[in-house]
Write a structure and sequence with these properties.
The complex is a heterodimer of chains A (174) and B (427).
Chain A lengths: L7 H10 L2 E5 L8 H11 L3 E5 L7 E2 L2 E2 L13 E4 L6 H9 L7 E4 L6 H9 L3 E3 L4 H9 L33
Parallel strand pairs in A: 1-2, 1-5, 5-6, 6-7
Antiparallel strand pairs in A: 3-4
Chain B lengths: L7 H7 L26 H8 L14 H14 L3 E5 L2 H12 L5 E5 L4 H13 L3 E5 L5 H5 L5 E7 L1 E2 L4 E2 L2 H10 L4 E4 L4 H4 L9 E5 L13 E5 L12 H4 L10 H4 L4 H14 L5 H11 L2 H20 L4 E5 L9 H7 L7 E6 L2 H11 L4 E2 L9 E3 L11 H6 L6 E5 L5 H14 L1
Parallel strand pairs in B: 2-3, 2-4, 4-7, 7-8, 12-13
Antiparallel strand pairs in B: 1-9, 5-6, 8-9, 10-11, 11-14, 13-14
Helix pairs in contact in B: 1-3, 3-12, 4-11, 15-17
The chains are: A alpha/beta (174), B alpha/beta (427).
Pfam families (chain A): CoA_binding_2 (PF13380)
InterPro entries (chain A): CoA-bd (IPR003781), NAD(P)-bd_dom_sf (IPR036291)
Protein name (chain A): CoA-binding protein
Chain lengths: 174, 427
């Protein structure tokens, strides 16, 4: 995968196929991007499992927080890394030690570790780096266009409402 | 559709505008409403906390205006845009996001007269101080930079027409001093010049002019190039410091490469209030669909009229960069090879009186203070916009007694030339 420029279909397929997301670097602070992304993904029916050693055993947005990926008792579809690029290396290795393996490792906007990505891809895991799942969901669904952001998407097909009010769109745009 | 970047003409029609999700309406609906119902209480909290994308209140955002924003962001190659009530409002919001009282910015001295007024007088009330530099001498921008300088401001094609600015040379100075370069791209429009490709960081527009293009709606745009990293830069606290009203959120960090546009919206537009009406947004959007066609015709007509005037026995000089004899011809070839725009000035051998007679005698050209209309426009600055200045001041401002400014429309060029000929004969 060329990690400088992901095809829209690659990102869309990932966001449509994953359900359980372990979010490493979760925060209790509602002003932090990781809290905002956790809330946004929960509202879109993803099963987000917050991971933060400092908050382990507590609750965050109604979800139980785990200290490490290995502590999570259920299979994980996607590991979302909300740490810096250096920390993404060992975290990727923790993810690669899981059984079953996750299908996707996603590193947040500004986080990129090409060596870790290569190790994950060698095991057949899809990798996304330096992207935000909230921005990508907003871009592909059309929601982000409400904020005047250049979605770089053109379509003569109408966006599809998510079925939960008028201000949420789904990824099922033709 | 593949991920291939669509062409400019396709973006001018499609960017930002999908069929309406609720009704399937294909033209962009005019969402003429002040407010939007929340899906539930939690959704309302998410919107107010900037945690979800969506609409609250049309002073802060409106779906019709949002289509215009994304359209112009796409045409300029930016990350995001913000539509506001006028080009002047765009400038207030840009500097509001960058400046603290006592700060300075460096601006080219060849600007729209309204901008010179705004920077010289009204900005002083905010404690924002302008230092002037000469766009013909890029080094003069560097000389004007001080430790309080927060930005550099230029026009791509500068008023009163006929000045092509060497954007790359000034962008290099801005980069060296880690300052955002703001470019007013009104006169060129993104069809002729795309300033982000030459190193600009922020673009402003008076959409009233060529974007809308039909002389019917006032509006302005701010476009974020996504190229300037405000996060962690203490000189720009609006973007780099926690915002108390948003629970300590750091806008430049949370919104990444479109943080500047968001800051202009959630601070400037929210608190200063110059929102664009959705109706005006619709009119400007409709205009933009034909921007590539109009802008080419404007430029082609202007070159034909300028060429004709340059050979006229009553005309002493013509200042149009599309003419090979012009001092800006080489810069025009580099920055706007498709054409040098619609607006230019020329001088009458008969001076002030000839200028007044010419304006009175023209039948097709409208005598008014605007540019960028489908209709051809004329103004004699010395007897109108610059009337209060001394003769020396008029000449310095490019508005000497003999100067006439034209904004060439998209009519048949032969009719424009005929009208100018008959008016010159009588002048």
């Amino acid at each position: 995968m060329n990690h400088d420029n992901y095809p829209n279909d690659y990102i869309r397929e990932i966001l449509k196929s994953v359900k359980t997301i372990a979010l490493v670097g979760a925060s209790q602070n509602p002003a932090r991007p990781s809290w905002i992304v956790t809330k946004y993904l929960l509202e879109r029916d993803y099963d987000v499992i917050p991971v933060n050693p400092g908050l382990a055993g507590g609750e965050l947005l109604g979800r139980k927080v785990y200290g490490t990926l290995a502590d999570i008792p259920v299979p994980i579809d996607m590991v979302e890394i909300f740490r810096n690029s250096a920390a993404a290396g060992p975290l990727t290795d923790e993810a690669l030690a899981l059984d079953p393996l996750p299908k996707v490792i996603w590193m947040q906007l500004s986080v990129r570790n090409d060596e870790a990505a290569a190790r994950a891809e060698a095991k057949g895991i899809k990798v996304v780096m330096d992207r935000c799942p909230k921005i990508e969901f907003g871009r592909l669904s059309g929601e982000i266009s409400w904020q005047g952001v250049n979605s770089r998407m053109l379509s003569a097909k109408r966006p599809v409402l998510s079925g939960k009010g008028f201000q949420k769109l789904s990824l099922n745009r033709p | 559709m593949t991920d291939r970047l669509p062409g400019f003409d396709t973006l001018a029609i499609h960017a930002g505008a999908a069929p309406d999700a609720a009704t399937g309406a294909r033209a962009t609906p005019i969402y003429q409403t002040t407010s939007f119902v929340f899906d539930d209480v939690d959704h309302a909290a998410s919107l107010f906390g900037l945690q979800a994308f969506g609409n609250i209140y049309s002073r802060i955002g409106n779906p019709t205006c949002a289509v215009l924003e994304e359209r112009v962001a796409a045409l300029e190659g930016g990350t995001a845009a913000l539509a506001v009530a006028s080009g002047h409002a765009a400038q207030v919001l840009v500097f509001n996001a960058l400046m603290q009282p006592g700060d300075e910015f460096v601006a080219g001295n060849k600007l729209y007269g309204g901008s010179i007024n705004q920077f010289t007088h009204t900005f002083k009330n905010f404690g924002w101080n302008v230092a002037w530099a000469d766009p013909d001498e890029p080094a003069s921008f560097e000389a004007a930079i001080t430790p309080r300088t927060k930005a550099i401001f230029i026009e791509s094609i500068a008023n009163p027409g006929g000045v092509i600015v060497d954007i790359k040379a000034i962008a290099a100075i801005a980069k060296k001093h880690r300052l955002p370069l703001i470019v007013d791209n009104t006169m060129a429009s993104p069809y002729l010049i795309r300033p982000f490709e030459h190193g600009a960081d922020i673009i402003v527009h008076s959409a009233t002019k060529f974007l809308g293009g039909h002389g019917n709606s006032i509006g302005g745009l701010i476009v974020d190039g996504g190229s300037f990293n405000f996060a962690g830069d203490d000189r720009y606290p609006a973007l780099s410091k926690p915002r108390p009203e948003y629970g300590g959120m750091v806008l430049g960090e949370t919104f990444g490469n479109f943080g500047f546009a968001i800051a202009c919206r959630v601070l400037g537009l929210r608190d200063l209030g110059p929102a664009l009406s959705p109706f005006n947004a619709f009119m400007i959007l409709t205009g933009i669909e034909t921007l590539p066609l109009r802008m080419q015709r404007h430029s082609d007509n202007a070159l034909a009229v300028a060429t004709h005037l340059a050979a006229h026995h009553k005309v002493s000089w013509v200042s149009y960069p599309g003419l090979p004899s012009d001092r800006y011809y080489q810069l025009a070839k580099e920055y706007c090879p498709k054409g040098a725009g619609a607006v230019f000035t020329f001088g009458l051998k008969g001076g002030y009186e000839a200028g007044i007679k010419l304006v009175s005698n023209l039948k097709l050209f409208s005598h008014l203070a605007n540019i960028g209309d489908t209709r051809s426009l004329v103004i004699h600055p010395a007897s109108t916009t610059h009337r209060q200045l001394t003769d020396a001041q008029k000449t310095q401002a490019g508005a000497g007694p003999e100067v006439v400014r034209l904004s060439i429309g998209i009519e048949d060029k032969a009719d424009l030339i005929d009208d100018l000929d008959q008016a010159l004969d009588a002048a």
